[in-house]
Amino acid sequence: MTHQDLKEIIRDIPDFPKPGIIFKDITPILKKSEYFTYALNVMEKALQNLEIDYIAGIESRGFIFGAALAERMDIGFIPIRKPGKLPYKSYKEEYSLEYGVNTLEIHQDAVSEGERVAVVDDLLATGGTALAANRLIERCGGKVAVDLFLIELSFLKGRDQLKNVNIKTILSFS
Ligand code: AMP
Fold first, then answer.
1. Which of 59, 123, 148 for mutating ligand 1's site (highest number of atoms within 8 Å of CB)?
2. Which of 1, 26, 49, 54 has the fewest CB atoms within 10 Å distance of its CB?
3. pLDDT tens-digit map of 134-159
4. From 3.40.50.2020, 3.40.50.150, 3.40.640.10, 3.40.30.10, which CATH number describes the 50-173 domain?
5. Of all protein residues, whose CA lies closest to atom 16 belonging to ligand 1?
6. Is 61 an annotated catalytic residue?
7. How would DSSP label each residue in 96-161?
């Protein structure tokens, strides 16, 4: 198994969820355990030596990779969710997406002062989602140790929005 194999199994869905967007469908990775395991192995390696206290996953696909990584690494998982889903007191950040505007929320007691968090999502596009997630961690008093993505759409220049953050991506599409 190679990175190229992983790249090739990701399915392009044109015009989803809106005309002009080519959606990267990662469900073929999840469907085959050897692909999912390979993806988790390389993502876990990218998080080595960063002294991370928690993994924060961004709803929804960030939950899949983030929760699996947290369990492997024996650390806690923090859900960063779409609006109205979290039951306890929450902080809110608005952000703009490649295809619209949205809000993310985190429980106010999710992270404590100075704790180090890896923010995980499936894909980095324009960077708005990750920027909002990073702000939520910081509002709780935490430190974003790294933003980790399986996929980067490098032509959308998400990295430009995430200055001063350690960004790691596994597969880049240009
Ligand atoms: P952005 O905020 O523009 O970096 O968008 C990243 C978020 O939107 C991630 O949670 C992705 O899952 C999702 N997303 C954005 N663009 C795409 C795309 N072309 N294919 C799949 N997911 C995408």
1. 123
2. 49
3. 999 999 999 999 999 999 999 999 99
4. 3.40.50.2020
5. 125
6. yes
7. EETTEEEEEEEETTSS-TT-EEEEEEEEESSSHHHHHHHHHHHHTT-EEEEEEEEEEEGGG-HHHH
